[in-house]
Amino acid sequence: MIKNRIHLGESGASLWLPELRESFARSADVERIVVRLSGRHYGVRERELFLPTAQDGAERDFLLRYLSANIYNLLSAYSASELCVFCGGGTAELVRALPPLFEGGGLGKVSSVALRIYGGLAFRISPLDEYAPTENAASAVSLDLPRRLRGRVRASAEKSCVGIDVGGSDIKLAVSCRGSLLYTKEYDWNPAASPTADGITEPILALVREAAGRIAREGGTLDAVGISFPDVVIGDRIVGGETPKTKGMRENAALDYETEFAKLRELRAAILPLCAPGAAVRLTNDGNMSAYTAAVELAEGGADEAIRGGVVAHSLGTDLGTGWLLSDGTIPAIPLELYDLLLDLGDLPAAALPPADLRSTRNENSGMPGVRRYLGQAAAYRLAWTLDPSLLDGFVRREGELLTIPTAPEDLRKPCLEHLMRLAAEGDGSAEEIFRRIGKNLSVVAQEMNWLFGQTPPSRFLFGRFVKSRRCFELLCEGFGAAGTGIRLIAADDDLANTPLMRQLAQMPGVSVAQFAQAIGAIYYAAE
């Protein structure tokens, strides 16, 4: 069974982790292990896995990759101060090989995040016969959640607020003054190229200064700033530090990365002096802001029942952002870094290419075949080359054997994606298939979420550039629906414009709700 899968992966086929997990669990000759995560922000989480018996070294290596991918995904989602694996029999040897794999780069990315959140990650191995279930119970449903969300909308109408949605290729800004949407702005940038924290923080601070000046001319003061930031954010502080946005800082040998990253971690403190005394400055992950934005709009539209079970949302653009507003109205204090999950243990020819190559399935930040290369703009480039390389004519640079979408002297990433979206909307068959396949890949993420978190809400709200084109969204739904997950995708477009600021946004020429929804949501998130 294992050897056949190895051959499929070597031939370029995908070996999806949820399918492997289900197949192994149904097999007769398997051994059970239990993985327990502990962290003060969430308590205890436990998941079981089943491992077949390896017949040779190649099969053992495959099972070790399989086991480490499952644990990596759990840590990407939750992080932990301690990870304990309960095992016995032949699995103990595999488990003992795990700790060294989570040191340094690659899989060690999650250990670095745990260091910044918890001060470190302890790895423990215990006999399976000592295991006793201890996982925490789920949070209770709050019947007050819709009312509380509508209260944030009312509060924003009495203040002057700034909402910022930080992306990988642009920053989106929305500014309101006492319930009126003054203006929106899109600022193009490439944070991954910045060798210092200032290159990331200064553009954000400049936009806040500009907004404060405009608000002052309207006779107001800056009372609230909400920021959607693409990194792990816990307690309004950026604590991850392993995303593509900080790539330039990580690779800058002239500075100590932890010292430099601390400047980014304190972005909230740098913004506070630009605001009125007592102002609220709140940050959360961009995916969480998507979920919060969807929940606010649903609450304002009277869809209370749809909210009470919580809201899950994704933003599809430069990367995949994932957010979750729990049924009790809180955002879980976990990394939720689903964009970096390991879902495919196959397609080994593509995984052998360097991350900088557009054909590779390896994420640039972790060096491993993660979700970022299956969803988001990088997936669109990779699939375009696979289906019809001529789709990328005029956008590809060849440097020896390396193929890239250039970022200098002109950044062609966004124009290339817009080009592919336009071709799909015009009926180009290969371009249409790009977005169907991305939809299918998103269904694999949905399956992985159900394993990681248990039962999740039956709908997914999609934000971002991919949703801007109605046809592209329809194609995503086709690919997603073919997987039979039973989950419905909902576009965060003009139909989700229920709050006063979002309705004003929908009426503004030259912009769309899909583009600036999270910036508007950030305003409501900060208004208290």
Based on the model shown, name its key terms.
528 residues; alpha/beta; Nucleotidyltransferase, domain 5
Blueprint (SSEs and pairs):
Elements (H helix, E strand, L loop, with lengths): L1 H9 L6 H10 L3 E10 L3 E10 L4 H22 L3 E6 L3 H6 L1 H4 L7 H10 L3 E6 L17 H12 L3 E7 L3 E8 L2 E9 L9 H20 L6 E6 L3 E2 L2 E2 L8 H4 L6 H9 L1 H5 L8 E6 H15 L3 H5 L2 E6 L3 E6 L22 H4 L25 H11 L9 E3 L2 E3 L8 H13 L3 H25 L5 E5 L1 H4 L1 H12 L6 E4 L8 H8 L5 H14 L2
Parallel strand pairs: 3-4, 5-8, 8-11, 12-16, 16-17
Antiparallel strand pairs: 1-2, 1-3, 5-6, 6-7, 9-10, 12-13, 14-15
Question: Would you give an account of this structure?
Answer:
There is one protein chain. This protein has 21 helices and 17 strands. By secondary structure, the chain is α/β, with parallel strands linked by helices. The strands form five sheets. The chain has a five-stranded mixed beta sheet, with helices on both faces. A hairpin with a 3-residue loop joins strand 1 (30-39) and strand 2 (43-52).
Q: How much is the average pLDDT?
A: 92
What would you report as the Rg, rounded to the nearest angstrom?
23 Å
Total count of domains: 2
Low-confidence segments, given as residue ranges, are none
CATH-level-4 superfamily name of the largest domain? ATPase, nucleotide binding domain
Q: Supply the CATH architecture of the largest domain.
A: 2-Layer Sandwich
Task: Return the CATH topology of the largest domain.
Answer: Nucleotidyltransferase, domain 5
The share of residues in helices is 40-55%
Structural class: alpha/beta
Percentage of residues in strands: 15-25%
Sketch the major β-sheet. 5 strands, mixed
Our measurement of the CA-to-CA distance between the termini, rounded to an integer number of angstroms, reads 56 Å
